[in-house]
Amino acid sequence: MPMAATRTYRIVTLPGDGIGPDVIREAMRVLQAVAEPAGIAIDTAEYLIGGAAIDGAGNPFPDATRAAVLAADAVMLGAVGGPAWDHHTGPMRPESGLLQLRKALGAYANLRPVAVPEALVASSPLRPEVVRGTDMLIVRELTGGIYFGEPRGRDLRDGHRSARNTMVYDEVEIKRIAVIAFDWARRRRHKVTLVDKANVLEVSQLWREVVPEVHKASYPDVALDTLYVDNAAMQIVLRPAQFDVILTANLFGDILSDLAATLPGSLGMLPSASLGSGIGLFEPVHGSAPDIAGQDKANPLAAILSAAMLLDALGETPAAEAVRAAVDDALAEGLRTGDIWSEGFTRTGTTDMGSRVATLARKHLEQIPIG
After folding, report:
1. 255 and 173 assigned to the same domain
2. Is 169 a catalytic residue?
3. Which of 55, 86, 170, 258 is catalytic?
4. Is residue 17 flagged as an active site residue?
5. Is 191 a catalytic residue?
6. Which residue in 147, 175, 191, 328 is the catalytic one?
7. Is there a single domain that holds both residue 92 and residue 148?
8. CA distances from 142 to 6, 148, 354 (A)
9. Distance (Å, rounded) from C-alpha 108 to C-alpha 115?
């Protein structure tokens, strides 16, 4: 039975470039499908970013876009960039718009879930018995560490080329990302694995001091263990199902999340969220794939699963769970976009996949008592 909306959320969409508009359209279709049975209303507005913004406004992150995202409850991003803008450099590159967006939102935590649905176990490059049951969340610190530390640069020393980067973290940065990891672990299976290189890095030794302090003070109900990053990489390949939440610094998170991304067999299945000051940014992991843009070939499931993370972040857990269940059901029915298709399954397009997930998600939510 339809419910009167008791909560309204303003969602700004930034479709961006390439297949971004294709997949964001389907993600928003699914969000609107679950809104009424969840008792919420979704107010949406679309703005430019990336290459589309360069073409339309002469800036990859226009002032109008900045103002809109800062007034939103959440932001859905498609993808940015493509060969059409490769001649642009520096602050006029499409990717500069993404960096400015993250900075404007104060997004210091990147969350990347990696799950392998039972229907896709055979599509993984790992053996089915290894990958079955994989459902991890990598929480990566996004604005500190070696990518941003000073001093950095290149010069000549004694006639030889030299380069340096500096890995720096303070306890405030570590505490705030640890809180994110522990909070999300409470929504999942109550386990956090801190990944570092504390046997050789003083920075990692500080992480090993601060994270347990946060754990002891506020999260005694969540289990905490530690792994060195080299062992963690090996374990992700050998026994990925052992992990719940992985907490790690910027450099290690970048590497481990890309390694784990291979497990489901396609980037088209991987969502992400960037969180920080309160306004979350939600986007599929895949790129803009301009070669298939507008052809009804893109896999919208990563964007749809990013929308589920958006609902989670807003506290709309039943709606988020309904969306994820609908994705699993659509795959179980045999629906496959080209990137995950194989003999014996039904090849479908972007629109039909999104439409089917929307129908199934609404049906799931209508069967769940809300309130």
Report:
1. yes
2. no
3. 258
4. no
5. no
6. 147
7. no
8. 34, 10, 30
9. 23
